[in-house]
Structures are given as structure tokens and as C-alpha cells.
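Note to self: the last two entries modelled the partners one at a time, which told us nothing about the interface. This time every component goes in together.
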Amino acid sequence: MIEFDHVSKHYPGGHEALTDLSLEIRHGELLVLAGHSGAGKSTLLKLIAALEAPTAGRVLVNGLDVGRMRRSQVPYLRRSLGLVMQEHRLLMDRTVFDNVMLPLLISSQPPSDAAKRVRVALERVGLTEFERAMPMTLSGGEQQRVAIARAIVNRPSILIADEPTAHLDPAYAREIAALFRSFHAAGVTLILATHDDTLYSPYGARRVELAHGKLLS
Amino acid sequence: MSAHVMALKQALRRLGGKPVSTLLSALVIAIALTLPALGYVLVDNVASLARGISGKPEISVFLNNDVPAERVKAIETALRANPQVAALRFVPRDEALKQLAARGGFADVTGALADNPLPDAFILDPRDDSPTSFEALRKQIGAIPEVAQTQLDSEWVERLHAIIALARSTTLLLASLLGAALIIVTFNTIRLQILTQRHEISVKLLLGATRNYVRRPFLYFGLLQGLLGGLLAWALVVALLVVMAPQIEALAQRYSIVLSIGGPALWQGVVLCAFAALLGWLGAAISVRRHLHDGLMID
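The predicted structure of the combined assembly is written out below.
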């Protein structure tokens, strides 16, 4: 479970990204964060992954206070999450296979087991035939699917995605959204920031709207 | 362990991936190390050369003219038993006169003498040739009543020690300065690598890499680059000595000294490489500490 307990986040210069936000996300839930640009959606997601620290309040992930976590514990928190960012952040000089393998290498998985898991993840996103391809040769949608395969290869119980379909055309966006919904159906807690909540709302997602760093609904 | 093997492989790939720049960086390190290493070897050879020119430091002990033969024998026995004396040679007064006569221009002088004015003498080699031990032994022997005079080379020894000490200090200073240069070279190489790999590092940190996981390949890179520089420096020192040795040996020959210039011993080469690797690692560690941190890498 993830809990935001009166969380505020102020950036230097006075910008207030989140103000006294309280929110609970239950295990296995599909949560869609909606709101205008600069509403605080990305900040909220970054707080979960300890990419940012709250200025006030507490962010609890499975009972652990992320803001007060020792720096040495942070990598282990991130390994337990699947992160898909707006920019796919792939390594362009590595093959698709190597990109998806990266989280497994980082967490020192045995190579033979790791290779099997990479292939399973690639199959899950429909990219089996592209494992030796370089990301540069793939379309935007395919690159985003590689990023998703990389996020799920460690079998995380929580998947966080920040505008995963922002730069994709509608067909690709629907394809990616279907993929995320299938992960949720498999029991993964899914938290998505998106401008297009129609991709998820009809499928039982809880919609939370932010405006100027405050929770509207 | 597997994490270390992986980091080592990654460092080797980075070194092999840009062979020209790797070679150039290693050469810069090698040149920086060659100067003090060559200096060290030459100082040793100069010390040996100085010993060759002047022979081993000795103390000449001159007795009074009227010392009976049995007393001379007793003094010789006492000196031989002294643990500070490494070797002893007795020069009887008649032998000394013959030696003087044998020298060019002195035959007429000695022939004109009515009586032999030279005393019996001992020439001894001290076991420890440091100036303080030298002086202590001289005082000890000078206290024997039958000893008229002791003559030693302590001034020469002190001068020689001072020259060698100066040369050693200069070499050490040079090694320190150029060692610092090696650290700076590695620091800068790693800084550039961190900048060029910023994206990859940020992705790894995002995916849960620990700081050690990110840091390790850079540390191995610094260590390996230093080691490579050390090996090249060793090769350069050997090559330079091969070129210089005949000239130094020819110079020694002019002073009737048989001198053979040897290159650095195996253990010295190993120490040189280990020193270079250590400095490379240190430069990398400082650079990584300065340039790698979460706030900088993940935006």
C-alpha cells in the first residue's frame, strides 16, 4: 500500500508542486492521475520512487517512510518498483535485449535465469523478434514498449508510469494502455499520470485529479 | 564477487573501446612515472659509481715510531677482534717506505734519507660506513696510547652521503609531483567519462543501481589505466637504460672502473606498476566522489 500523509513539496524559488496532499493507494489498484501540466502529477510519482523528497508530510510505500529512508536503502526501493517515464530513457547503444536485461544485472540475477526473464518480458510486450534490434531502429511505440518490458522484468508489485503515451499517436497509445491494463489484471498496483484518462477510466480505474498541487477529487 | 567481475569487464571494454585515447592517456602516465623511476635507478648507479672511484671508505691508523713488535702484534689482534672492523691490513714501516720509493719522483728522496721516518700503520675498513659510526670508531682507536694519528675519509663520506641524499630527495619530490599529475590525469579522464555517460548512469540509478554499482567500473578503469601506464613506464626505463648504459660504462672505464649498469629489478618493476595502479585508483576515486551523486545524475 502507498500512503501520502499531508505531503507538501516546494521547490527552490518558491514553486509549490504539492500542497498538503493526502492519498491512499491500495494494493492491486489502478489509479489514474489526471490534471493540467504542472498540476503535480510527476512530482507525486517521483516522491513514490524517492526521486524527490517531500518538504513536509510522509510518503509511505509498503510501510516504509520514503522521505526518511537512508540513502543506501533507496536503490532497493527502486528495484521493487517498475518505472516508466515520459521519455523512455533507453540506452541507444545497447540492443533491446540488453536494455531489458539492465535491471536484472543491477540486482545481480543469475545470467541464465535473467535471459529467460528478459525473453518473457519481451514476449509480454510483443517484441520477441526485436531482441537484437537497436532501439534507434524502432518506432516510438515500440521504444516505449521496450521501456515497459524493462520496467516489468523484475516482476514489480507496483508499476508507475508518467505520461507513457504522451508522444504516441492514438493507435500506439491504445496499444500501450491495453498492455498496462493487462498488468493490472495480473494483480500489479498501477499508478499512471496521463492527460488521456479515457484510456483507463472505462476499465475500473480510480481517477484522481490534481490542480495546482492540490487534490480535487 | 560477480558484481566486481562485471565492473572489471566493463572497465576493460571502456579501455578497449577507445584504444588510441587509452594509449595516449597511458603514455602520459608512463612519461610522468618514467622520470622519477629513471632518476631512482640512476641515483643507485651514481652511488655505486662514487664508491668505485674512491674505493671503500677506510681509516688509516699510524703508530708511534718506537712501538715494539710484540705490542704492534697485540694492537693488531685487538683491532681484528673489534666488531666494528670489517677488514684490517698491516703496513710495516719498511713496506711503506718501499711503496713511497716506488712512486714516481720519490725514489731519490727516500734514498737520501738516513733513517726510515715512516711509522707502522694499519688500514682498516669499518663495518658500518655511516659518518657517525666512522667517527666513533676513530675515537675508540685514537684512545690506544701507541696510536700517533688516525686519518679518515669522514668528510668525503659525509659529502657523498649528502649528494646521494639530495639526489634521493629530488627523485622523491619529482615522484610526488608527477604522481600528483597522474592523479589529475585520471581525475580528468573519469570526469569526462562521467559526463559522456551521464545518461546511462541516470538510467541505472533510476532502475535501482547502488552508488557502488555505478562507481565500481570507474574505479577499475582508473586502476587499469594506472597499471597500463606503470607497465609502459617500466618498459621505457629499461629502454632508456639500454641506450644510456654503454655511455655511462664508457665514462666509468675512463676512470679505470668496471661498471655494469643494470635495469630495475623485477620487484622494482612490480612496485612501480602497483604504485601507478594505486594512483590511478585514487584519481578515479576522487573524481567519482566529486562528480557522481544522485542529485546531479537523476533529473
